[in-house]
């Protein structure tokens, strides 16, 4: 068509006139999402066959009892005898001095040199003879693709290379070695990446073969370049599965970065790509923002990827009215049946809402809809679908004035816009950037209808829509650079002694990049290289990939540049919380004035060594392609194609319609208006731009649309319940808690808060009732409300502006002592008492007591567990009480056998961070009140709480109708203490009494659970049973009366030890509640707390077990359940940093209870000690099995064994501390989950029906990873 030459369908295309081809593909993404890749076998070090199944041991959604996870990419596992372990100073492991050493600098694996500079010990040689038989067996099954993961292969890949050579010799067509695919530490993500590469690369090869076959001579001599996930192009022959997952969306980021960002003003840009199923959000400020590990379709891929955040909602996102809330997505109508207006019986969607409001004009769309794909969009079908929703809104809001179809449609659009604003706020404000300073670059099919409203809501003043916005991903590929990256792992400190080695490695990688790009025809002046060091503070996990760009070398730096200055560059942005209240601003916490690390993480650690994890060089070959030509001014006013009526906040307005192709650079179009790119509409790519009232669109000289966004008329909001405003306030209240959490994580210093994210932030009403809480850590749910209400009762009028409270005592709503809660009252001018409260609860690694970590397994009294605070004024009249809080934190040291806090400076820094987080909450609450008024904000606080109450009442009514009004259950702790529950449900009111009378007495030990723990467990269970997203607040407990006998194990005396109650008894409370309601069989009922250490090192972990089966699912094996979701340390990191060898970590097969649905299996975890240490274990379910339900068998008991080096095997029991010696092995066998239903029972049709999987979007990006990490606590 382009050349005017006919091309017969069956004849290959003549490629002689093609200069180059640049393209992206979704082949890899679709194969991953649909699990239609190559058949793969996974080969691992013996003892770790289930390592990728267990993964981090955290479940992806904390309220999902099924713990459903995507299917594994491999179908066969091979274990091979081989083992490398890191050499460690002070190691006293018998026989270790005789082991062969693999030491050196930066050699290849086959040279015997270790790539990182570390020394590895050859603990067990590779057995290729036995492996040959296993590989032949797998080949006989028809599997031809192999992924290889051997521990510590990133540092010495020799064993993997030998395995790869053997596999290719035997006939495997594709072999992905983890050390070759991504040579970075951490076995689990590296293994997932190798599997993804083995799973996807053969698919890509077949696709490329088919593509080339369509051209004469298979495109010989034509440069064919493919877009990779990192935003760079690579030759077709180097395009592989692990680097292809974001091939399509990456082009869009390059497109808006090149066309929207202007170097001269440096105004950062937010990319907003709204498609049919979801929306992609990203940021560009002169450099591409990469992440180096991200999850797509349940697979964690460890490779450079653009930070593209996929969130709801898209044009096809479905609309719901649930429990009084307007809900948009995440379910999507897809392309088939698609939105209701597609004429295929689809559900109401965002697209239908826009069509009902007149914002989409069917006459400008192609006739490709309906069963025959030959009809126009149907506005009547959209109206019918929205009319049905309007009827449900009316039925669900009795007493409210009925809403018109247009009002309902507008409500859903506003809720969708707010849902998309939340991730943009997080992407900017979470990193210290002012959202309002950005330009919104809009592209994709649906974005033009929402861009003005979203920019206005975020305070942005400018929207930019490129003239090729409908094909911006393809256009971006034409503009992109060709990239070659080289990377090697490293384990050197960043210090003068290592600079020569680092320069040598950088020079070698730069040479590799230059040679690779020169081989593709780039001249030396077209090639640029940029060196990066992946830097982190020693004993932390927060690493930054740092370029020395802008930081030239100094006498005290590498020749490649001053990476130390880069690590500590970029000034703290203005307005960072922490100033005021007598506290130092975060920018003054250390002497250095400007710090990138502080910008990212809120602090620096001046006395801590910096470690280089990886050395990376990115080489780019620049083509300098430009395809744009300027427009000539028309000298005439813009031509109005037609006039339509569009619905806005003000009602229907006459809205002129313009065609983009008829506009010139001298045209200015005030809103309301619609601009249509007819070429895009005719291709079905979407091309409708809505210019809202108060905004003005103009064209640039190159024909792009630039919209100046006005502030708009504020709409009046009253205190009466409005379902649309209810949904919007739900987002805003949650956003306050989320942004508080971001500030806390950035400004904290401890590993527990900064990296494990073991904290919660929350907003409370004037009565202390919970309004919003983030993240949803189960053991914190509802507990902070008890703390805030205790302070209100205790202090009353003694609360003044400028005061901040600190509390952790169980009688004051505390969970266990290391969880310190900081509470700040929010005052408003003219109101004598607090109008809100904000609070943050963080787990401090140590606050004193009889053992390091303040988690003693054998404590008998509260004072043995650390420092105690009841109502301590941390800040008084705006002054941080450092001397007083220091004295209180050191006070346990005055008790015989106890110590004060062992890490005072971390405690103080984290407390300051908690105060700063609360200050951010106060600022955001004040902004909300300033916008709507105090009365309205407090009214909607009450409406949100009432909404959660409604959802719980509906659940209780449904339960009573099915199972009756009274249920009861009992379970026991291992010491025999009963946990008894009787539930009486009122089916008319939808209320219930939860009566724990008859539960055991307080124990002489630490299994006592404070009352707040039981309430947290109850809220967790109610949310799981409701089965849908609801605001988790005070309203959840409003229909519930809880009776807990004083002096019992669930409400002990003030001085009772409680550390085990938080981590163990809480699990048993959940088991009892679910048993009473018949929800699911018991899960492992334990967190398996393991601590080891000596005077030099200390380590704490919790270990997964089996999940209980339910009426429609098998229990997940090797996963954390219910009240915990903590990630476990990667095996390679564990062995690098701590004096242990992880000998075995796999599923404990057969430990799950039998049943129609099987309980999940526990795990076996074996630790070999390399130094003298003390081992502590705090566990349960070693005497009482996890119950089965409805005829299902119980799960197996857990077992804690110590295998003495030259002596007996000892059963340690459930709770103990014991000295261990080098060569001793701790074998932890965690409990399985109970089974559900009699084994072999087919069940009834209702119970056996598998629920239909809803269409949803594949969430991804740094925001998704952050939320997953928050919930993995």
UniProtKB/TrEMBL annotation:
Pfam families: Hydant_A_N (PF05378), Hydantoinase_A (PF01968), Hydantoinase_B (PF02538)
Gene Ontology cellular component list: cytosol
All copies of domain Hydantoinase B/oxoprolinase, residue ranges: 722-1239
Top-rank taxon, per record: Eukaryota
Segments crossing the lipid bilayer: none
Ranges annotated as biased composition (Gly residues): 1231-1240
GO molecular function: 5-oxoprolinase (ATP-hydrolyzing) activity
Positions of the UniProt region annotated as Disordered: 1231-1256
BP GO annotations: glutathione metabolic process
Domain named Hydantoinase A/oxoprolinase: residues: 190-485
Domain Hydantoinase/oxoprolinase N-terminal: 14-170
Similarity comment: family membership: Belongs to the oxoprolinase family.
Name listed for the protein in its UniProt record: OPLA oxoprolinase
Organism, as annotated: Asarcornis scutulata
